[in-house]
Amino acid sequence: MGLMFIAALVSACGSGKPGTAAPGRGMAGGDASGQDTGNATAEQVAAAARGDVSCPADTTPTPSGAPVDDIVGVRPGMTYEQAANTVMCSSPLLVVQPETGRGFDMQTYGQTIRQGFSARFAEPRVQKTGRQLAQEMEQAAMERGLNVARHDMQPGQSKWFVGTMGMPGQEKVISAARDQWFDEGRNPTIDSVEQALLAKYGTPTERRDRDTYHQLRWAHDPRGRLITETSPLYSRCNGAASPDDGVQLSADCGVVVAATVIPLRSNPALAQDLQVGVVDQAAGYQALTDTQQGLQAMDAARRAKQVQDASKNAEAPQL
């Protein structure tokens, strides 16, 4: 049975923990509420929000003989904190925020499970007049009416989503995805990007070349063996290259890496952006199952203790 990780782009600010947004620290111009005000560069915004980051990141290499399963050092099995630190070490402008609006629909019994985090480039903070805000809203409404696609990044930026699962405070990475939009004038060739992917991840299970995208997939079974076209798992073990997409979990599939290279419109031989995602389906499925069972056992223990306490401290009914 497969499980689908539900993608819904809603982010929330952190609470001052390392690697989460923390308002008001180290920035001039804060108001009485602790919120930052006044203009600030992207570097200043990032420095105030990133908290403690230790670089170079302490990463664990892929075990010998196992499929390559990392994206810029982030790989399944890392702790939430390790992954957040590694992501931020990939760029001094990346800020990590917990994701509370996407994840598995599961019974948490009142506990908080960190099901992942996103990371995006910090943007300059610019005080805008009411007129400027109104003009921006008018422009956005016009683009929606004309169905104009808006890219949510700028050239030279990247964004992440890292999915995690585990008991509270013990969450580990089950999936990761990164989108890199190449800087203007520095776009690599499609061929060089594909050659770099093949050099890192090896022979692909599948590749698709279209006018608007080039896709590659490296799918493995739970024992780490590459899935080929003759395998019954060939069409079942899929991944998600984009940070905006959800991932599928199945006990029948292992590590799946997916990559999408999007050509530059003005020159299809050059790459505009590269999306790469990885998921360990079997390990993620097991982590989800173990977490649900652990939460259920925790709640059962809580209820049993309440019954035990009631036998000692409960108020007798008046009859």
UniProtKB/TrEMBL annotation:
What is the name listed in the Swiss-Prot or TrEMBL entry for this protein?
A: Lipoprotein
Could you tell me which residues belong to the region Disordered? 18-41
